[in-house]
Amino acid sequence: MIKKVAVFAAVVAVTGLCQPASAGETQMNPDPRLDAVSIGVGAASAVGYLALGGWSLKYHNVNGVTAAGAWAFTTIGCAAVAPMVATLVVDRPLTMREGDSLIASCVIPFIGGWLVDQAFDAHPEWDPSYKPPRRIRHARRR
After folding, report:
1. How far is CA 24 from CA 70, 72, 124, 132, 140, in A?
2. Does residue 137 belong to any structural domain of this protein?
3. pLDDT tens digit string along 25-58?
4. Domain presence at residue 60
């Protein structure tokens, strides 16, 4: 019973970290449907991992694939499929930030996307649509 409560508390704490990123007025608010895509594709890759392991939480080498190999297959599959599904769901090309966030969420569930959003907030020049502030040159007086 204690394990179930601890797992529930951990899930609540992690989902509390998943907040949309914003970098002030200039940053477009991300589409909330991307969170659902990330969770859905991540759940599908978790089911794929369990299927490769013989439907057991303790991994059994049923198909000749080790636990690390199954993790690699499902992570790469999630990272490949998540941006494709998200593009279909939002019906527009994804921004660099959205695509990177989806891929990072496949590698480190929930926290990966949050880390990418924090990195883009700290370095707005990484976004291809970013235009640096224009410098005003002053004339020199002689």
Report:
1. 40, 36, 11, 15, 35
2. no
3. 344 457 888 888 989 999 999 999 888 888 887 8
4. yes
Angle at the Cα of 90 from the Cα atoms of 122 and 39, rounded to 5 degrees = 70
- Residue 29 is predicted with a pLDDT of 55
Residue type, 69: G
CA distances from 121 to 30, 42, 65, 115, 124 (A): 13, 24, 39, 10, 6
Is residue 37 a part of any domain in this protein?
A: yes
pTM: 0.68
Tell me how far apart the alpha carbons of residues 99 and 9 are, in angstroms, rounded to a whole number.
29
Number of domains within the chain: 1
pLDDT at 17: 44
CB 90 within 8 A of CB 56: no
Residue 101, domain extent: 31-123
For residues 120 and 126, the answer to whether their CB atoms sit within 8 Å is: yes
* CA angle, 82 then 28 then 120, to 5°: 65
Return the pLDDT at 2.
Answer: 58
Query: Is residue 131 assigned to a domain?
Result: no
Which tokens hold the place of 34?
A: 């991307």
